[in-house]
Amino acid sequence: MEQTIKIPQIIGQFTNGDLEDISPEYATMLSNLRPNNGKLEKTFGFGTLLDGTVGFTPKWIGTYFHRSLNSTNGSGTGYVYLAYSPNLAMFPVSIYEWNGGAWVSIDGPLLTNALGNFYHKNDTNPVIQDNGIIRFLPGNVGKADGSHTSEGIWIGYIDQNFFDGGWNADDDYTAGFYAYPTTINTPLVTSGGLGLALAYHVKNGGSFSPSTAPQTRVFYKYAYVYDGVQISKLSDAFACDIKEDDIVIQEITMAAATHPLRITGLKIYRCDTVDGVYLLIHEISLTRNAPNYSATTDGAYCGRNAIYIPALSTVVWGNPIVPGTYIIRLTNSDGTIKDMTIPQPTPGTTGRDTFYSSSDTGLYDFWDCQWAVKRSIDGGFSWIDPPATGTISGINGAYAGQDVIVFNDPLSVDFNQYVGGVIVLTNPSVAHTKQILAHYVKAMRVAGVFDAVFSDQPFAFIKLSDGLYYYSTDKYYFFDYKLTAGEAHPYPNAVSLNINGRFVQANQGRLFLQDIVLDPGDTDEAHDDWIGYSESGSYDVLNVSNVFHPSDSKGGAGIGLKLSFNSLIAMKPHSYFKIDLVDPADATTWITKESRIERGNIAPFGCIQIGHKFYPLSYDGIYEVDVNMLAASNDTPLVDSRLSEDINDQYLLISDANKALIIAGYDQINNELIYKIGTFTYLAFNTVKKKWRTLVTTTGITCFGYDNNGNLMGHNAVNGKICSLSVRENVSLNLKTKHFRVSFDRPDIVDSVKITYSSINALSVNMYRDGLFGTAIALESLTATTAGEIKTVQVATVTNGTCIRCKLFMIEIVDVSANDDDAIIYSVEPVYRNT
Fold first, then answer.
1. pLDDT tens, 228-274?
2. Which residue has the higher pLDDT, 184 or 412?
3. How far apart are CA 202 and CA 208, in angstroms?
4. Pairwise CA distance, residues 515 & 604, whole Å
5. pTM for the model
6. Is 746 helix (H, G, I), strand (E, B) or coil?
7. Which 3 state secondary structure label does DSSP give 638?
8. Separation between Cα atoms, residue 91 and residue 115, nearest integer Å
């Protein structure tokens, strides 16, 4: 009786079991065929994406994205393909870019400056891209070449103006992409280069009140700010001698032409003792676009002989019958009275509120004090009110004295904007610098006293809100009149801010490193199972104190960092650790838990993360892991999550040493994990359908990366070019069904195989039978067709009409010719007869 074996669809490859007992929906070989909604579609391996040899075997390839990239400095609008080698002819590092037709060094097309010499471990080192910046990190090494400290490479776009607009992008330097070390350097207060050449002088005009008279010292330390946020260690102390009511004026030499453009600020800290706690008093922004130093050519008068009384501006002065002497009588809160002689006002005039006296207030304060205008005709023996219409006396509202400046013109209606700032009298013969304590229209009260009078002097303001500094001729001038001290330096006692690591993961504003070297190039303290982390928001600030040690009973080095629902997952050969960052900014709140699942990862570059899940390779299989699995209280999730179960026999045939060398990538278009398990053989796992298939190509991938569309690409060792799954390669195809049982007792006849297909090329059909599964029996071919054709392949005809009898058989459909032509197999239905 004739029997038809119905195979509704082929859904995946299965080899890990009795090939007779598996479901008909599984194939025992599915090479370059992908199940897709009931049909098998041919896939085409890795075709050449970038048709030019790289020139070396890269350890990393990928795409750097930035809005300022284009076909001139990159590979296309908004992106550039990069290839990185840490050990090209034994150091230094080389990075090449694809310019649209060839691979060339990034010096010139991409970089505005030169890459320089970097020395990295000869390994697949971490590369991380974040916030428009790409970093090539040196791996877990201190001195890769034995001589030079191994530093990471920072590449980013810089177009800011520096030094109060005195060093501008595209005027003084070229805006573009720059390469710098990732190292955050500490200011050196005794040398140039990355150091600060410092000088200072003091003037009366501040609020310092030394406890030890008549002179004492105040100490300053400095920290660079990189990239607007990353703070360096504190410099050594710089001492300044001060006296009562002094203002410290520092001269900080920073030459624009040699300035590292990553350094965008300078924080200034102060302490009364050299070894005390230094507190932040000010920050100099090196990227302020314009100076706040607004100068005038004249108009400042000393309050010792200049008086400002706003109320007099509405008085109309009368014409006295007998000329006399005019005074303004000032009375301060202490009862001190000063009669200030002024010229007789012109009769009939009004609008005058500033008066210049031939008298001197001396060293007395008259800020917002009592006043009256008086006149005498007897040489000052008696005083009377002068003829005038309006108010000529008041209980307050007069401004003069030893610490007051009076101006010809009003400064501003906002009386508070200058308070806390500094005024500088710029005439070298006068040269006062004073802290501004108060301001009212044409009068300003300052710290300190004027020991001599002056009149009609040029001046300049520096407002506190704009920063108490200005830049001129390679120097910053900074003013400290005992500025209010703020917070302490975030890591004042840090030994080093440098950690190198083999594995890196960014999470919630911090950079985490595993298998690390502390203080590289100096102490080179190595810990292969420790984790280090950066300061919050500062990927390059890697304090050697920021470390922890996930310990497990079986030990082993760290083998990778992943993420799941914002938890950091640390992998070792036999364990996983989940680190919950309860408060990412506060490491004391973090909770580290070891999963009871006694599996880990052994392939450093074979574990792929997709969303909140990751796919590690263990000694016994490939798993799908997330925080829910790690938190499980029993072993059930372990069994359920071994993804390689269908092909685990093939996986177990790979030696443990070679398992550790497996590399993997993710094909986002088809939701497939691609594992390279041989020179030209790859296994593909569909993360949605949870099924496997095989890729056989002629490309030997050395490392995977992703193109500008997120498609998987790789470096082909065969021709030295970059290939991609999105480009067709000439490949064969092969489908082998399960083993079909037709009889246990005696052989029965296999009549035919009904196949629905379409193929541009002819396909061969073979049959294998019991006892001879290594020998193919060639059946009829499937002729080329572009439509869905149904063809019944007769089995008996291939042996001149002699029937083929067997107990067990398998059908194979194959195209051994390598081509990039389409082929689809819709269905396969073997027919046999029980006799």
1. 999 999 999 999 999 888 999 999 999 899 999 999 999 999 999 99
2. 184
3. 11
4. 11
5. 0.90
6. coil
7. helix
8. 13
